[in-house]
Each structure stands twice: as C-alpha cells, then as structure tokens.
Design a protein that fits this description.
It contains one helix and seven strands. The protein is mainly beta. The strands form two sheets. It has a four-stranded antiparallel β-sheet, covered by helices on one side. Strands 1-6-5 form a three-stranded antiparallel β-sheet, with no helix packed on it. The radius of gyration is 18 Å and the shape is flat.
Length: 141
C-alpha cells in the first residue's frame, strides 16, 4: 500500500489485538519481522480452542528493520488489553508491504503455538528468498 498524501515520514504499526484471556499469547521472530498471537477466544472455558493469527513484514533493502513492541491500552476495551505490533518507518510515496497471516485453529490443523510460528517462519523465508528459475533455451546454453 502507499500513502502518497502524507507530507513527511511516519511510523506505521502493523498489529494484532491482545486480549485479557491470554495476555502471554504473543510470539515474535525479530529476525524475520513476524508477530503472532494465540487468541483464546472470549470464553476459553467453553472449550472453543485457540485461534492463531500473525503478521509479517518482508525484508527490504531500503527499509529499516521494524521494531517489535507491545502497546498497552490505557484501559481495557472489549477484553482487549493492547496490541502486539511491528513498528516501521515509512517514507511517503514508497510501498508499505505486509502480510496478514490469516488464521489457524487448534481444533483443526494448528495443534500448538510452536507449530503456528513454524508455519509463519516458513512463509516468511519463502517470501524473503523466492525461488529463482532460469529457463535455458538453445540461445543461452
């Protein structure tokens, strides 16, 4: 995305809401620019499982490394206590690229937080180091 209407550089936040039901559910990989969260849903005692979410900012040669931060809310709102965030410097007119890591569910195919983070890390590595294919033809053999 681009913010061409901004006149000067800003700090942008790519974030995930952290709820009171699992204040310690945040995960991150600073080297790969990943944040993730294990959301216990609004009623963990009901046995509805855990929803895993994540976000990732790809490596860029001209971007500064994002900062991983927990940003607490001044007061709890709708069970939210804050945000896990990747804070990035942004220059107007440049591209701001991030991936919202979708979601996984502990009652389907994501058994543990560690498994979710492994999936996020695998995705980030593939984006940061895409397959490079060279097609050989008779003229470049």
């Amino acid at each position: 995305m681009r913010y061409d209407s901004l006149s000067d550089s800003r700090t942008l936040a790519t974030g995930i809401v952290v709820h009171r039901q699992n204040p310690d559910g945040s995960m991150w990989d600073y080297d790969l620019n990943i944040i993730a969260y294990a959301d216990s849903t609004d009623n963990p005692c009901a046995g509805n499982g855990v929803i895993y979410i994540g976000a990732f900012i790809p490596a860029s040669g001209d971007a500064t490394h994002p900062t991983v931060a927990f940003l607490p809310l001044p007061e709890m709102k709708a069970d939210a206590i804050g945000h896990m965030a990747l804070l990035s410097s942004y220059t107007p007119g440049s591209d701001y690229v991030y991936y919202w890591g979708g979601a996984g569910w502990s009652k389907h195919d994501i058994p543990t937080p560690e498994y979710w983070m492994d999936l996020m890390q695998s995705f980030a590595r593939r984006i940061n180091s895409p397959l490079d294919v060279t097609v050989l033809t008779s003229s470049n053999k």
